[in-house]
Design a protein that fits this description.
The structure holds two protein chains of two kinds. Helices cover about 20% and strands about 30% of the residues of chain A. Chain A has helices at about 5, 30-40, 45-50; strands at about 1-5, 10-15, 20-25, 60-65, 70-75, 100. Helix content of chain B is about 30%, strand content about 25%. In chain B, the strands form three sheets. In chain B, strands 12-13-9-8-1-2-3-7-4-21 form a ten-stranded mixed beta sheet, with helices on both faces. In chain B, strands 5, 6, 15, 16, 17, 18, 19 and 20 form an eight-stranded antiparallel beta sheet that branches. The radius of gyration of chain B is 26 Å and the shape is elongated. The chains are: A alpha+beta, B alpha+beta. The interface of A and B includes residues 20 and 67 of A.
């Protein structure tokens, strides 16, 4: 079974403004994207479980025209607040790299 | 211009100060753009630039980029639109960028009609709109009231394309603005010339990040769009960079919560139906993007307030006995520090007057509460101990206490005095100065798109 890290062209996270962060998981071709989509492994639920937040805090998108999945969540702390640990939210994607994709 | 005519747009770079190749700008000018645009910042660097009034990029970097764009625009006699001056677009940021612009004009002997559009908001105006119920929260938003307005170092409004167009109508050929929507810099002129709103706004969205939309971004660089009837064509100007349907489509993901719907002052881009077609191996044609006009015009606010002054201590732990009880050892450091601070200051300072925090790299320093890993799997950790207080003196006082307490906090395995923290520097503490927080995520409903953005006209040279 392959992992998302092995299959994806790019996995990244970033601020979407100072109050929300967003995670992009992008694939290089339609075939891989469709396989991952079909596996059902990437979902609102997975994002919620990974970050230990409730599902209704997660916006989840399948973006067919660029073979990408996208999730957005409220930042645990606003950008630059005293307890914030990642000003650009650039390193919050790591837990998705090792997710295994059934059927690959 | 009839709707079948084209509007050619050159984006100097993703940010004025991030750079671009001089050759790329020249290549773009060869395609005869109707105007050049560039923004000067965003909230990306965090609350510090907005709160402190400082710019994120160095003055020298901003000046280099601005000089090349200004010279190119003046030579071709096309408008230059510079949004969000000086990172945050508040009064000191606009002033800093304006001084740079004036300096360049003098050095190069340039003459032009300039419009400077201000975006830092008058606090009484904001209070009036708040009392009228015309300041509304976005989601998520910090609490907001008149006290928030008073406490803010500054609050800026994000202007739409209308003030830019008004300045041009009144004869300006260079427009330097405070905080503006990045897209508004690029959308106004094409829309006015008959390009459908959906196409113009989507092109603007791609343009505003410069080469972020190319396949393998090597560095910040210029980008070119040709808007024509029902589509726009996008291309990089460095011969080695390629725009592909996927690279352009995926740009709508970047830094947006929703990849299909992007909100502006006067409406929302709808990119859910956009189509992307390769024209050749470098250029992409985009069609079928939509725009839904808003029922109510809104202006987004950005504000920052002072949190306090901060001093930090950086150190590391390598002892496996400490590492296996790291959490409880750190709890003891917290307790020792608070007790010692109380011993020093007595009742003159309460626990609410300062914040003492320890970050642990190697455990959850990067992800904090989002970290799914629960086990420590490392032979060393880095600790950053942070003290934040109403004065720098007090922050430093707490940080120096923390250094001493962390150095010698005992563990049961060792008897005798231990030194449990490897301090990186001497002095071990580092004064970080003032720290700020974003305190506003709201929109104002103004009477019109202009009332929050006064325009000043200057004949340069």
């Amino acid at each position: 079974m392959a992992t998302l890290g092995e299959l994806a062209k790019l996995i990244r996270s970033k601020n979407a403004g100072p109050f929300v962060m967003t995670i992009d998981i992008m694939f290089g071709d339609e075939e891989t994207y469709e396989k991952v989509k079909k596996s059902g492994v990437l979902s609102r639920k997975l994002v919620a479980e990974t970050y230990k937040i409730s599902e209704n805090q997660v916006q989840f998108f399948e973006v067919d025209n660029c073979y990408a999945f996208k999730a957005s969540i409220p930042r645990p702390y606003f950008q630059g607040d005293l307890m914030d640990s990642d000003s650009h939210a650039g390193q919050q994607y790591a837990p998705f790299i090792d997710i295994e994709v059934p059927g690959t | 211009m009839a709707s079948t005519d084209e509007v050619r747009v050159l984006a100097g770079s993703g940010v004025c100060g991030a750079g671009f190749r001089a050759e790329s700008l020249e290549e773009g000018m060869g395609k005869k753009p109707h105007f050049i645009g560039c923004d000067g910042g965003s909230t990306d660097p965090g609350p510090f630039p907005l709160g402190s009034g400082q710019t994120s990029f160095a003055r020298t970097s901003i000046k280099r980029d601005m000089r090349l764009m200004l010279l190119a625009a003046r030579k071709a006699k096309v408008p230059l639109l510079l949004g969000t001056a000086g990172t945050s677009g508040g009064a000191p940021h606009v002033q800093a960028a304006r001084e740079i612009l004036m300096e360049i004009a003098e050095e190069e002997g340039l003459k032009f009609p300039l419009a400077v559009i201000h975006a830092e908001q008058d606090k009484e105006y904001l209070k009036k709109r708040f009392r009228e119920g015309r300041i509304k929260p976005l989601d998520p938003a910090p609490p907001f009231d008149e006290e928030t307005i008073d406490k803010s170092e500054r609050i800026v409004g994000m202007m739409g394309e209308e003030p830019f167009l008004k300045a041009l109508d009144n004869g300006a050929e260079v427009v330097l603005t405070g905080r503006s929507s990045d897209c508004a810099i690029y959308a106004g002129i094409p829309i006015r010339n008959g390009i459908p709103e959906g196409i113009a706004w989507h092109a603007a969205k791609i343009l505003e990040c410069g080469t972020a939309a190319v396949e393998q971004r090597k560095a910040a660089d210029s980008l070119f769009a040709t808007c024509r009837g029902d589509h726009f064509d996008i291309e990089a100007l460095d011969d080695t960079l390629r725009c592909t349907p996927q690279s352009v489509a995926s740009h709508s993901l970047y830094e947006n919560a929703d990849p299909f719907r992007l909100v502006e002052s006067n409406g929302t881009m709808d990119l859910s139906t956009s189509t992307y077609e390769a024209l050749d191996d470098k250029r992409v044609r985009v069609s079928n993007s939509g725009f839904e006009p808003a029922d109510r015009y809104t202006v987004k606010l950005e504000g920052a307030e002072l949190v306090g002054y901060q001093t930090i201590v950086i150190g590391g732990v390598r002892d496996p006995y400490i590492l296996r009880q790291l959490d409880s050892w750190i709890e003891k450091i917290y307790a020792s520090v608070h007790k010692r601070v109380h011993d020093i200051y007595g009742d003159t300072i309460s626990r609410d007057d300062y914040v003492f925090n320890i970050r642990v790299y190697g455990r959850d320093g990067v992800m904090g509460p989002l970290e799914p890993e629960t086990e420590l799997r490392t032979h060393e950790v880095c600790m950053i101990m942070e003290a934040t207080a109403p004065t720098q003196d007090m922050a430093t006082s707490v940080a120096t206490v923390a250094r001493h307490k962390a150095l010698h906090e005992p563990i049961p395995e060792w008897s005798g005095l231990i030194t449990g923290l490897a301090c990186t520097y001497s002095p071990a503490h580092l004064e970080r100065g003032a720290v700020y927080r974003f305190n506003v995520n709201h929109v104002v409903e103004p009477d019109d798109p202009y009332e929050m953005f006064p325009i000043e006209y200057v004949n340069v040279g």
